[in-house]
Amino acid sequence: MNASACKKGIWLGVAFRSFAVLFAAAGLLMLQGLSEGLEPWVRSFLASTPLEEGVRFHAAAHGALIGILFSFSLLAMLKEPLSKPLLLNFYIVGHLIFLATLSATDPALAKQSFFVFILFTVVLVVLYATYGGRREIFRPSEPKAMNRTLLLLTGIALLALSPFIVRGLIEQAGDGQMQFRWGEGAALGLTLLYAGYLTATSRTGARALGYLQALAYAYMGAASLTLPDYPGSWGLWGGLAAIAYGIVYGAVVRLQLAPRPATAAQGAVDTRTE
Amino acid sequence: MTIGTREQDNFIPAEGRRPPRRRSVARWAALTLCGLYAFLFLWKIPSYYVYLRDECLGTACGRSVLTPLPSEAVASLGLTDAAFAGLYTGLSLFFFSVYLAVAVLILRKRPKEPMSWIAAVALNSQHITTFILTQWEGLGWLASALADLSMVAFIVFLLLFPDGRIVRGWMFWTALGAACVRNLAWYFPEQPWGAQRWPIWLTLLWMIVLYGTILWSRIVRYRRHADVAEKQQTKWVVYGLLLSQSGIVAVSVAPLLADRHFYSASGYETWKLVMDVAVQLLLLLIPVTLGISMLKKRLWDVDPIVNRTIVYGVLSTAIVALYSLAVWYLSIVFRTGPNMILSVLGAGLVAFAFAPLKARIQRIVNRLVYGGPSDPYSVLEKLGQRLKEPSSPDEVLDIVVRTVKDSLRLPYAAIRWNYQGEWRRAAAVGQESGEPIGIPLIDSGQEVGTLLVCARSPEEKFGEADWKLLRLLARQAGSVVRSVKQSMDIQLLLGDLLETREQLIFAREEERRSMRKNLHDDIAPRLAALRLTSSLAADWIRKDPNKAIDLLSKFKQDIGETVDEIRGIVYDLRPQALDELGLIGAVRQRIEQVRQLRQLRDLEADEPFEVELEAPDELPILPAAVEVGAYRILTEALVNVVKHARASLCRIRISLETEEDSGALTLLVADNGIGLGSREEAPASAEESKGGLGLFSLRERAEELGGSCYIGPGESGGTRIEARLPLRAGTIHGRGSNHAAYSVGR
């Protein structure tokens, strides 16, 4: 590795980290990932106008998607970002799922919210451009080793989430209030399933993504227990099941996806930087 | 089966061990009881029919054995009173006749076995006790006693089946005592210890003691005392019991799925009758399987039937559950009620899952019924341990196939190999069921045989674990088969060697005897005569010198003849020409002698005869035995042609086949004569030879040297004799390369 390439790599790393922090903060604050995430327990935190009572669980879903899954995945990449291209893959595809769901279920709202498409496109392009190992994001050199247990757990999640996803899609399609609430719940389900698949590949970064999923399930379970009868809620039993699932999923990730040796990870980074 | 433990006793000893009188009494008592039960049933059949026809439809019909239909239901079915009564009576008679038929069959086929008597009483009475209790109310306690006797007979049957022996005395008497105590207690309802007054915990305790003891007794008998046939008998009975009881549970529970109040609600009487009949039909499985177990000397293997029953039972349940679950789940996902599309999707899912589900269930059930596949390492260890024991080659192969069969629970395993040019099964265990699957046995890169195995059932395929174990065992079996084959080859060679050695000794002794005979019978008298002639000549020298001169002339002539005789003997041992001229020269000389002989006899003009010799210019130094053998074969064949073939041409060819490390001397004598007639092959013995051709000796000479000799018709008529004499490695040196034709008689 020559000096100029090394220098370029360092600058890219700095730039990526800066943007990651910026977009994570924007997700948590500007897009209200944090305030809506706390909505089941703290009403209208950091909000100028309180949310409607009926969308409190939807707000929790927004918090899980934007706050936990998207923003936290960017924060998780601050340490050794080049060793976690899987997280950036998830971040980019997750946003695309979100936008696709919006377009498919509520085209009128999608048209009206065109700026969201532009905003997300800019964010994704910037992150993609500043990432040092772009090639590894969608065409990873590391072979996937499918973890059967995690894949089975994802299959169970698919069975459990399918009713909520389908319901979210149907409700959003019939929603005339021009709010992407039901659809966001469906997008959350789809994003969680995609995250489950990525985690099951056992590639570098799967461990961090697995923990994020476990946290998201446990969070959604807790929100469901708090708001069992609210629209979109997973209910009492669904909440309990989601918490149990989150704990089991986290434990399986911890046990079966052992952290990679630092030297190997570093070696991988070096190779990619060259 | 181990007999002789203190607790083990013969409740019903084998025939001949109990005094005949007591056996006879017991037998007649059993027959009487059977007859009594049948009589009590049949006697009341007419009155039962009349009761059903005249009274039942108008009343509660408490004496009906089957669930009575209300009169509206009877009318809706279009039945008259008589038809209704006939239907109910007919059903009772049908079920009775099945039980009775099995009992009669058992008594007829096994009339002298006490277990048959108990089984007959139990079978004959079990079905009709309810009938007797309801129809013979007038008998009072006697009817109850007959019902109790029936129950006791059934318990005794369960405790003693199949061989009539008590495996644990205390268990037998505990169960029997418990049954008797409860039955007796029923006869004293007013007493504080009457069965009606027993608290629930006591009744439960009684049930646990009775049924627990029976169950435990059966387990002990099955695991410790039953041989293979008895285990099969037990399996049949247990199979019948379980199948009938599971069926009854299913039939009883199924209506509750449609209506939770099925049994308490009215309006289901017709269905209840159907259920009653279904239950009775399911109960028939018990006498049928019991009859099979007692009557068949060689029982059909019940395991495949159990296996199939469980597989299809579980599969059916799983498919129904899967279908219901799929439809329910899809209705939740799409937030719709059950509809046609969801049903089709559910059916599609079931169709998709059917084959893998069946295969998986089959594997699990196989593991339950036949046991799981053994651990490969323990199997190999077991095989190694067994092979350590001193065994003959046949036994070794038997051990291998037995290990394969036992470790995979297969019905059949065999090893097939090619031995002495023939494919045959070297070892086999079990019975073939279906087409065997062949696994090649390879050792050192060569296929040394095939391991043949049959799947556990025709429909079942081997799983990955089975194949893994089979491949592992086949690899080991390949080495074993090669060793066994080599061992058998060595034994065969040893046999051949001994035989050859005997033949050599025999030939040497024969030759010695022949030489002794020649010396003793021919040379010795000649020498004695010479001595006498020389003595006479010495005497006559003084008396009459002329006479002496005559004698000496005769003496000289005799000496010449004796020398010729000795030369003849030496020639027989080894022709001198071979030493002087070599094989080809000696053959040439012989051909020349034949030609001269024919010229002397003046035969050339009338019967022209030509001999063609094709041979290399020179041959390597051949082993003496081969050289002599070749010379004898050629000259003898030539003489045969001259004497018997009436041929005009005889071709003789001597050639040398050379291979990398061995070779052979090939001899050919072919003529265009009259041939061997219609015979395709040469005669098997000299006696059979046509015209004393001595063809047998040609073949014998070739075989003595480890070679072969073909004697048969030539391609264009005549006779063709072709001998091949093998040469060992290292014997072919300095052979000539140019072949030349030598013609005689042109």
UniProtKB/TrEMBL annotation, chain A:
Biological source species: Cohnella xylanilytica
Answer yes or no on keyword Transmembrane helix: yes
Q: Where are the transmembrane segments?
A: 59-78, 85-104, 110-129, 150-170, 182-201, 208-228, 234-252
Q: Which domain of life is it from?
A: Bacteria
Keywords (alphabetical) are: Membrane, Transmembrane, Transmembrane helix
Question: What is the protein named?
Answer: Uncharacterized protein
Automatic annotation (TrEMBL), chain B:
**Transmembrane domains' residue ranges:** 25-43, 85-107, 114-133, 139-161, 170-188, 200-216, 236-257, 277-295, 310-334, 340-357
Q: What is the lineage of its organism?
A: Bacteria, Bacillati, Bacillota, Bacilli, Bacillales
Where is it found, in Gene Ontology cellular component terms?
Answer: membrane
What's its top-level EC category?
transferase
Q: Which GO terms describe its molecular function?
A: ATP binding; phosphorelay sensor kinase activity; protein dimerization activity
The protein's annotated catalytic reaction(s) are: ATP + protein L-histidine = ADP + protein N-phospho-L-histidine
Identify this protein by name: histidine kinase
- Which controlled-vocabulary keywords does the entry list? ATP-binding, Kinase, Membrane, Nucleotide-binding, Transferase, Transmembrane, Transmembrane helix, Two-component regulatory system
Looking at the record, the residues that make up the Histidine kinase domain are: 518-729
E.C. number(s) listed in UniProt:
2.7.13.3
Q: Which Pfam family, giving just one, matches this sequence?
A: HisKA_3
